């Protein structure tokens, strides 16, 4: 691999990071110096008081003073003894004897990158690869061997060349001396974080000392006040160091990408980056599927064929090409539903966004030395055994109440596909309705017939209009937050032009005008859609059924907003339960809940007796809601909440939201399915 020149941006961020470290060191040494002086004064003062008149009272005061000084000094040094140990309970270690081909593959990569071979290699289940190590304060000064974690769902979703690029990226973080500064900033970050937030054991020790006597407790309390002041100073330093670290971290990602491109070429890293979101979504889908099956004691012996199926299934649903049994995602697919033109640099982000990484890799344009298109699973000696072992480890943490039943991949595919179809709209509509609703129009408002075709109405351009309008609405909300000071930033870009917060008043009206124009065009298209299907239904003698379907949906749609508003009010009114609240305030809030419960319970009663909602009200839901309606619950009686009563209410609130949301979805789907039916008749 050729030597990689460190970019000017990387150098700039490195200098900022070094300066932030220097700032911390100077501040920390000043705090230590003051703490040592303070401890000496406390010790001298305590000793002097005891010597002045040795009594129990003076001894307690003297010990209290000494404890105050020592606690402050110990607080500033406690991070030295802190070790950050990575949890390995979900990992399975593998050896070269078990996986010789994989280890040889990794050895070749570390040789090209010019870094050390991992101390240990572990397998996990997820879509991920990472280098990790246990760290402590001494990590800043002593060399530490790193471990490699490989997600089996990752190798399930990439080719050999893509896997090579991903591992080269991970090793690239440690390939040059210039990257060492990142480790220093990271460790300084950990030190300050420890001093600010990881204080359970320290507070426990302080409480133990305070429990000796009330006089000593007084001085311990004073030391904690002093420590709060120290934390205020450190919090300011932490913000500076953390921003420097995040900025440097983003540059390190670009650097590691360049290392990877030099090893495997630009294209394999690009294609893997664009696919990983789909792979991760598919993995989480399978995990969530089996989370819902815990009560039935159902699990798979091997989760990864199911992960592969979901990934390819979702790719097919989104019309993505499949090459060598791997979906191919390009930038236009990746950004299809993200039409925002607003760019705010997230100073707290540790990684640049995928689009920026892809653009940088395309600019490098390093050719692929050897495009190895086989899936990365070929690197394992016996992938089926590995996958089953990792699956067993993944589900070992789950407690089942009965004998576990193994679900075969074929059963999963059948159930998953059925559930997916029941919970999504037909792909014939090109995702037009995924984030918008159909609109009902008076059939007598049409003066002439439409000549537009189905493909015209649901074209990519029509879909783009919908998602562009959604993006502009969100952009207006965000820019309004910037204008009002709710979002504090120095500047932002919109459509390639830089704006300051003061210029928000100029930009917002422009976007509102554009949004109004788009909504008008969408309304014209929606009216044409209504007319197209009306004409189609008339030609097939289904006009009455078509209009009835639309009216039924329209009634549910109009009811939903009012129903959802009641849900929001109940959620807002009960939010205080999650926080420490004075008794008087609790009682006032409970009275507010009682007032809101009257219309809320009326709505629930209406739903339980409304024929239209019976399809989404299960026996279990009905039983619980009737229990809630049957009496007035007492949620609080000093000094305690009645948790059982609160649980009845909160479950009822969530069940109510499920009923109205599910019914709205079902009515929308019924209408769209009817459109599909008359289209295909």
TrEMBL record:
Protein's UniProt keywords contain Electron transport: no
Pfam families reported for this sequence: Peptidase_M48
Chain ranges of the Peptidase M48 domain: 150-363
The organism's place on the tree of life at top rank: Bacteria
InterPro entries recorded: HtpX_protease, Peptidase_M48
Keywords, ordered alphabetically: Cell membrane, Hydrolase, Membrane, Metal-binding, Metalloprotease, Protease, Transmembrane, Transmembrane helix, Zinc
CDD domains: M48_Ste24p_like
Segments crossing the lipid bilayer: 21-50, 56-81, 215-234
Cofactor list: Zn(2+)
Name the UniProt record assigns to this protein: M48 family metallopeptidase
Organism, scientific name: Arcicella rigui
